[in-house]
Amino acid sequence: MPTAPRVSVRIPAWDIRIGTTGEMTLDAARRAEAAGLDGVIAGDHVTFYGYGNDGLITLTAIAAATSRIELKTSVYLLPLRHPVPVALQVAQLDQLSGGRFVFGIGIGGEDPREFEACGVDPRTRGARTNEALQIIKRLWVEDGVSFDGKHFQLDAVTVYPKPLRPVPIFVGGRSDAALRRAGRYGDGYTGIWQSLDRFRQARELIDAAALEAGRDPAAIEMGIQFWTSVAPTRDAARGVVAQSMEAMYRLPFERFERYTPFGTAAEVADHIAPYVEAGARHINLIGVQDTPEEAVDRAAEIRQALRERFPGA
Known about the structure:
Elements: E1 6-10, H1 22-34, E2 39-42, E3 45-48, E4 51-53, H2 55-65, E5 70-73, E6 76-77, H3 83-97, E7 101-106, H4 112-117, H5 125-139, E8 145-148, E9 153-157, E10 169-172, H6 176-185, E11 188-192, H7 196-212, E12 221-230, H8 234-249, E13 262-263, H9 265-277, E14 282-287, H10 292-309
Parallel strand pairs: 1-2, 1-14, 2-5, 5-7, 6-7, 7-10, 10-11, 11-12, 12-13, 12-14
Antiparallel strand pairs: 3-4, 8-9
């Protein structure tokens, strides 16, 4: 019997124009820590259909307001940035948090104009990410790093401060390329919008890529991220999460519905449980509720329901 997974909840970034202040963000993070949740996650975009939120800035503020809870980007759009300043920013955040940061990365691409706005060809995002990961991992432990890639060139670059320890890198995504990336460079993998069969297949593809790269597949942690909503009835919960996802992605909810748990906390846990049985050790929840505080409280209920199904954590 697997043990209960670690459960993290998304904490929204602040934007006073839509009524979310910085203090509201920090209050929600402190509430998550007090509720016993294992982690908080922050999304990341520069201009996703015009909206942006920097995941590292969000979590730096949360790091200063909390003391125990794990901090994760899920996911940080690495191909939009140059790896040298990112290596420094992550190192500073890891030191500030006392080694609580997990660097979740992905390549994005749902809105190609976001890449164009940053001067990046969206067709290069995978290759840029692979090079950036190699550079960042070396800068955290080496001095005088040189690198001659297609997208990045470094000549004896040193970056201090360095993180307390090499920060865990969790690769997100659904494509075979993302799975190969996780096997070659990741300490963990976070899936999204995956069937149970695809999640199991992801483990196999990650293991194969890890072995090819001379890495231990067992050292790569599996997990998955869900959009979700909790309400007294499934119909009520479906309406809330559907409206939010359609507004975010500009696609009909039916594209996501089979991968999206909603209903009571017990019903959400029922949907997630087979993924835990298939090897998911961490669960990220993007909870759609009336307030950030309610999203935290409902995530704590889902965590408790999962612990009841998988005792011995």
